């Protein structure tokens, strides 16, 4: 990924708790005065608005792009006629306002090479991914990985330690 802003991914199988962890990590990074942007990849359709709202009705009337803006937030909704129009991660990163972010956290895109923390929960009985992905820079898990590894192993339940790793060992080293 090409960016002047450090990009860090969170890679895991479904059900591991990526979103739950990010919801806790973001405030911990904000306490360190970082401006955080987040990109979440979803494998399903979603809607930000609903029938009866003006923005929904304008979008459903055929607008290819709809911007909703208030004094406190703005959203751009772009309609794709075909799944092949979905932008890749680099295009999404390029669309962010780089003047408003110190770090970009990415949930998903586990098959793309960029620095990421692998999340792992033993109860899911899924294999580790770090053995086949050299872009994994740390593992946050609830049990020790089976092999001796050369990357940091973090406790997935220790939000402070994960935030410190992100800030001290990743962000400040960029």
Essential attributes:
single chain; six-stranded parallel sheet; alpha/beta; 22% helix; 174 residues
Ordered list of secondary-structure elements with their pairings:
Layout: E1 7-11, H1 18-30, E2 36-40, H2 54-60, E3 65-69, E4 74-78, H3 89-95, E5 103-107, E6 116-120, E7 136-141, E8 153-155, H4 159-170
Parallel strand pairs: 1-5, 1-6, 2-5, 6-7, 7-8
Antiparallel strand pairs: 3-4
Helix pairs in contact: 1-4
What does this structure look like?
Strands 2-5-1-6-7-8 form a 6-stranded parallel beta sheet, with helices on one face. A two-stranded antiparallel ribbon has the order 3-4. The mean pLDDT is 93. β3 and β4 form a beta hairpin. α1 crosses α4. The chain is built from 4 helices and 8 strands, in the order βαβαββαββββα. The protein is an alpha/beta fold.
Sequence of strands across the biggest β-sheet: 2-5-1-6-7-8
Global outline: globular
Structural class assignment: alpha/beta
Q: Which percent range describes the beta-strand content?
A: 15-25%
Q: Summarize the amount of helix as a percent range.
A: 10-25%
The description of the largest β-sheet is: 6 strands, parallel
Provide the gyration radius in Å.
Answer: 18 Å
Number of helices: 4
Low-confidence stretches: none
| Mean pLDDT over the full residue set | 93
Topology as a string of helices (H) and strands (E): EHEHEEHEEEEH
Count of beta strands: 8
Distance between the termini: 14 Å
């Amino acid at each position: 990924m090409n960016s002047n802003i450090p990009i860090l991914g969170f890679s895991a199988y479904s059900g591991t708790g990526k979103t739950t962890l990010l919801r806790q990590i973001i405030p911990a990074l904000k306490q360190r005065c970082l401006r955080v942007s987040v990109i979440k990849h979803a494998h399903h359709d979603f809607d930000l608005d609903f029938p009866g709202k003006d923005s929904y009705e304008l979008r459903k009337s055929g607008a290819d792009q709809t911007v909703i803006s208030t004094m406190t937030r703005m959203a751009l909704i772009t309609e794709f006629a075909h799944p092949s129009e979905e932008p890749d991660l680099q295009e999404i990163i390029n669309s962010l306002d780089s003047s408003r972010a110190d770090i970009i956290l990415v949930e998903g895109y586990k098959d793309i090479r960029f620095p990421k923390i692998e999340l792992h929960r033993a109860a899911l009985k899924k294999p580790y991914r770090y053995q086949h992905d050299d872009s994994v820079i740390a593992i946050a898990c609830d049990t020790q990985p089976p092999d001796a590894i050369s990357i940091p192993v973090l406790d997935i339940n220790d939000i402070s330690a994960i935030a410190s790793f992100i800030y001290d060992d990743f962000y400040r080293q960029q």
